[in-house]
Write a structure and sequence with these properties.
Blueprint: H1 22-32, H2 42-56, H3 88-99, H4 106-126, H5 136-163, H6 169-176, H7 180-195, H8 197-202, E1 204-207, E2 213-217, H9 218-234, H10 236-250, H11 254-258, H12 263-283, E3 289-293, H13 299-304, E4 309-313
Antiparallel strand pairs: 1-2, 3-4
Helix pairs in contact: 3-4, 3-12, 4-5, 4-7, 5-7, 7-9, 7-10, 10-12
Amino acid sequence: MEESAGYPPFQLGKSRFEQTTFYGRFRHFLDIIDPRTLFVTESRLKEAVQLLEDFKHGTLPPGVTKKEAIIHPDTNKKIFMPFRMSGYIPFGTPIVVGLLLPNQTLASTVFWQWLNQSHNACVNYANRNATKPSPTSKFIEGYLGAVISAVSIAVGLNVLIQRANQFTPATRLLIQRFVPFPAVASANICNVVLMRHAELEEGINVLDSNGNVVGSSRIAAKHALLETALTRVVLPMPILVLPPIIVSLLEKTAFLRSCPRMVLPVQSLVCLAAFSLALPLAISLFPQMSEIETRRLEPEIARATASETVVYNKGL
């Protein structure tokens, strides 16, 4: 809702920015990831929840628009601070810096990949499509699969690079800086597929133009998982690819050569800037409430509604 209305910015239905275009979604998600929402008090959050109820009953005060930053759109429950999209950058940037540290040992590689996938798993679970109950076993399965795949790929690539005698030490160090990307991207896909596999079996709720649930669709679930998986591949690209290139160039400057202790702070700032740009761009690729033609869904759903299209929450 509008700050001028005297209320903090959290979810109260649709955003003030249209989500039918990439730019509209980008503006919308800039609100969602705004770290200032992490400091909203409990009393002000209760005000927003009451406004949400007013909105559902058609009594929302004039001039108030709607945002999503603290409350889950399916459960209407508050998301734990470190796992909100607004907390992804401040809590995730230190992990990215750790992933990109040079000359990592086997233990440090395992630690940072484990920490990154632990954070990702919790963010995925907190922002999942929650129209259907998800057993804890699925969360554990997705978490373990993501950690094992990330650690295996990262360690395996580092071992191969160390054994590649044709590389000079400087070239080997530069290549090692790019190892986190394939490891994280592969693990992110594994995490999403394993953790949300139940949706493929049971389907997810689809809604008609009036917001009524018209059925549970496995086809919509496939679209939701594909869109989420693509987002999870695009997200780490600028975060884990651009900083190594930029930092390697900055390390050649006279300033960092004379002040090597500033390399880590500079790398942290570069990672923060890349993360701040990459997150809204990646999650803006697809609308959170995606639309699909009814005729493409299961016959029983097509018969249950006269709407030509239905929508579903793909999750973040």
